[in-house]
Amino acid sequence: MDLKKIGRFIAENRKKAGYSQESLAEKLDISSRSISKWERGICLPETAKMPALCELFDITINDLFSGEIVDMKNTDKKLNSNLLAIAKEKEQKDRQLLTLEWVLGFIGLASFFALFLTSIPIVETNFPLATTMFIAGFLIMMIAFFFALKIEQVAGYYQCAKCGHKHVPTFKAVFLAMHMGRTRHLRCPKCGRKTWQKKVL
Predict the structure, then answer these.
(1) Does residue 81 surpass a pLDDT of 90?
(2) Average pLDDT over residues 173-190
(3) What residues contact 164, with CB distance under 8 A and at least 6 apart?
(4) Domain spans of the chain, in order of start
(5) Is the pLDDT of residue 117 over 80?
(6) What's the pTM?
(7) Per-chain mean pLDDT for the chain
């Protein structure tokens, strides 16, 4: 997916429709900085704003993702190409999120052990400070683990070992499930069986 091309397409259609960045932003109830980012090819419009944007420009979402008006003969081909690009982009972002999960886990553990080990020598001389350091380290670790687990829940999917169904479980289900690394003992919403389900992208 060519973000620069899409950005140019948005800018062209904005000008053709007679909007400034500010007036278009007002119509979409967002900041003009967002419009500027779209047009410079830094990011795509938010999914929730795409239908309204396309309606204002009298284009289809397929046109928007293609960065051009798609000829009716090529609609299916372009649509498939765009869907594949979106799937690849999601997979790449999920990989980055799962890497961030490991980073958060490491930071949480490192912070806890650093504060814990630092507090040991001062337990006898300054017990309140040592206790505060231990609690602070524990809280940092728990917060880091919470966000790491939230990332694991939403990035990618869990795949049922019985029926192969891919799904995103609730945070509660992930939190309570037994696990070995990123493989968790979860109930499949399709077949209803509990199995050890692997994280897949």
Answers:
(1) no
(2) 93
(3) none
(4) 3-70, 92-200
(5) yes
(6) 0.62
(7) 90
| Topology, domain 3-70 | 434 Repressor (Amino-terminal Domain) (1.10.260)
Mean pLDDT, range 169-180, rounded to an integer: 93
Task: Pick left, alpha or beta for residue 71 (phi over 0 → left; psi -120 to 50 → alpha; otherwise beta).
Answer: beta
Angle at 70 between CA 69 and CA 76, to 5 degrees: 155
Q: Which of 141, 158, 151 is CA-nearest to residue 193?
A: 158
Q: Parallel, antiparallel, or unpaired: how do β-strands 194-200 and 157-159 relate?
A: antiparallel
CA dihedral 90, 91, 95, 97 (to 10 degrees): 20
85: which residues sit within 8 A by CB, 6+ positions away?
Answer: 1, 65
User: pLDDT tens-digit profile of 54-78?
Assistant: 999 999 888 898 888 887 767 777 7
